[in-house]
Amino acid sequence: MKAVCICFEVHLPVPLRWYWPREGYGETHIEKYFDMEKAFHNFTKLAENLETLNNTLSESIDNGGKYTLDISGVFLEQCKWAPGVIDGFRNLNPAMVSFAASPYYHSVCSLFPNLTEFREQVEMDIATIKELFGQEPKTFVNTELLFQQKVIKVLKEMGFKCLISEGSHNLMNGYDPMHVYNNGIPTLLRHINLSEDLEIKFSDKGWPGYPLIADKFASWIASMDGDVITLYIKYDAMNTHLQSNKEILEFLREIPLSLKKQGIQMLLPEEAVDMFKKTELPSLDSKITARYGMHNLLGNHAQHLFMHELVDIGEQLIMVKEPEIRTELQRIFRYLQQSEIFLEMNSEERRLGYERAVNALSILSDIERAMLEAGE
């Protein structure tokens, strides 16, 4: 019997402010570098419809659906603006929903030479999920679906049962990811096309697949060879569809029933890796990949320079003697690791990407200045 695993990423970044050094040095705090007003606006816009989305997900679960939620620590911190949002996720049937772990700050810290920061952020995320949802995560999802062999040992030591990463072409060599793959930890790879059919194309009236109904989608999956298809979808994309195409709600309600008619199960990732035989994929030993390619994260000089400076700051934080100052600087340092900051430096609009890189590097320069002053 074929199976489908669906994982929703629930995350909103905290965007950088346009920082002008002429504002003066002064105190170092989150609001100096991050646009909290914009973050609040973005959160409020999503939160307005989260009750509708979560209620629909609950109805889907009643119809036999199973889902994994990858909720970032950054998003959970924003929930202080609307605490009921957490209750909406908490009230989903715990037998049919699992919570994945990831780096707490939706950060790229797994790319650092030393994995201490990575381990600490994953431990933070695990502790938060346990506290808020009463579950110990068994599935790990790295930021931007990053796949790197070097983190596998750490994940095994932390007790993870499986890993979800990107099913990119450099891993799959032209094939679709349709299996549980043998690795240090059993690995599921996102089916890019089917995930994007729901995440991006669902409301596009010019798309040949429009309108996409649950029976049609289930028939596509039934026609494919393989054991398990993994879909990884941004939850806020469901909200975007909701603005212009409320049929997304009907799709979510009906997809478990449509899959069942085709003899397809919905499983949690930790269930899928137990059910199916592991398939060898040699490229896992030698390749590194991320959602939409590593070049989007580290494809130009500015991104590499920003990464180098971040690593240096992490190593220098120990020099800050005052605990309160060090704690605040570390929090800022971790927010600066958000993947979106790297992605924005690789903007298709080259000039804007350059301006964002200058802005981000100016912020790093001020952080280094603050650390030097605090270490005196």
Termini separation: 65 Å
Radius of gyration: 21 Å
Strand count, sense and barrel status of the largest sheet are:
5 strands, parallel
**In percent, how helical is the residue content?**
40-55%
Secondary structure class reads alpha/beta
State the shape: globular
Helix and strand pattern: EHHEHHEHEHEHEEHHEHHEHEHHHHH
Number of DSSP-assigned strands: 10
DSSP helical segment count:
17
Percent of residues in beta strands: 5-15%
Q: pLDDT under 50 segments (min length 5)?
A: none
Mean pLDDT: 95
Describe the structure.
- This protein is an alpha/beta fold and 376 residues long.
- It has helices at residues 30-33, 36-62, 73-78, 84-90, 116-133, 152-157, 169-172, 192-199, 214-222, 235-244, 247-261, 269-275, 295-298, 301-316, 323-335, 339-344, 350-374; strands at 3-10, 67-71, 97-99, 139-141, 162-166, 180-181, 187-190, 228-234, 265-266, 278-279.
- Helix 9 (214-222) packs parallel to helix 11 and helix 14 runs parallel beside helix 17.
- The longest helix is centred in the first third of the chain and has 27 residues, at 36-62.
- It is globular, with a radius of gyration of 21 Å.
- The model has no long low-confidence stretch (mean pLDDT 95).
